[in-house]
């Protein structure tokens, strides 16, 4: 089908890793802990087929330490 498989890896423990996509759909899992030497693979199921969605991953550490500016 049009499902996308995404494999996440990390050099250090990453807690509450969340993914987002730039097109509508849903993930098979989200809010993961990713540990070194333990890749996590999940699927993205787009609502509409076609095109290559862009993905963004964010974990608890980067979500709380990165500076964001308002639009």
Low-confidence stretches: none
Instruction: Give the beta-strand count.
Output: 6
Shape, per Cα inertia axes: globular
Q: Can you give the mean pLDDT? A: 86
- The class by helix and strand makeup works out as mainly beta
**Largest sheet: number of strands, sense, barrel closure:** 3 strands, antiparallel
Side by side, the strands of the main sheet go 1-5-3
| Fraction of residues in H or I helices | under 10%
Rg is 13 Å
Query: Can you write the helix and strand succession as a string?
Result: EEEEEEH
Q: Give the N-terminus to C-terminus distance in angstroms.
A: 37 Å
Count helical runs: 1
The percentage of residues in β strands lies in 35-45%
């Amino acid at each position: 089908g049009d499902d996308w498989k995404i494999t996440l890896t990390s050099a250090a423990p990453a807690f509450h890793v969340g993914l987002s996509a730039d097109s509508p759909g849903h993930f098979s899992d989200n809010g993961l802990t990713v540990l070194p030497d333990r890749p996590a693979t999940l699927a993205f199921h787009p609502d509409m087929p076609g095109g290559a969605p862009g993905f963004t991953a964010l974990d608890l550490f980067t979500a709380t330490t990165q500076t964001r500016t308002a639009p």
